[in-house]
């Protein structure tokens, strides 16, 4: 990624040296990384919004409203995946590392894969 | 006026349920098949909810939810099922189903569904359906 805004579902206060959240919809905050010319330009956070059953589009709309272009998840359901795609947010996959920084660096370097439709969670799989 | 898809085979037993949904002010689009429901999803941009039978002539309710999501993931979905709550959760996980409905939902089910829509902001409070 040369330019754009990345969101990482995060535990606690988030930040580049923080830890990723396992369930993006129920993370504490989203760490937001702005990338310019292939380098990290700035880091900020967005508070997640509480939602009830069936309200999993709440974080999708939240990040869409903040002009996020990419998110990295460890897993995701079909509805939010489709939602992210439909609001123009690319969804990348990494279910191995808990730390935020190496995942961000790998995304910028082009080393992460976009999640495939058949990698979604649930549905009896 | 926002729209609600009612994807359900002809069944007089859900007439009161349908009337209760219509009383919210939403326009009800009756679709007897999954393909018909998908055509409505393609045609209209202001559908807020799809209420779906357990099984339609051409696909199951959960199959239809998956196809709706691929077109417009913002449409909330409620699906009838004879499965237990636990089994339904397992089968539908990731699809973001708003509510599991009984096979023949009634007025109370419509009220609970509309209340849930208000909680997640798909319709405004004070029984107002047209959201500015």
Automatic annotation (TrEMBL), chain A:
Entry's transmembrane regions: none
Dinitrogenase iron-molybdenum cofactor biosynthesis domain spans which residues? 21-108
Tell me the InterPro entries matching this sequence: Di-Nase_FeMo-co_biosynth, DiNase_FeMo-co_biosyn_sf
Read off the PANTHER family from this record: DINITROGENASE IRON-MOLYBDENUM COFACTOR PROTEIN-RELATED (PTHR42983), IRON-MOLYBDENUM PROTEIN (PTHR42983:SF1)
The protein's name = Dinitrogenase iron-molybdenum cofactor biosynthesis domain-containing protein
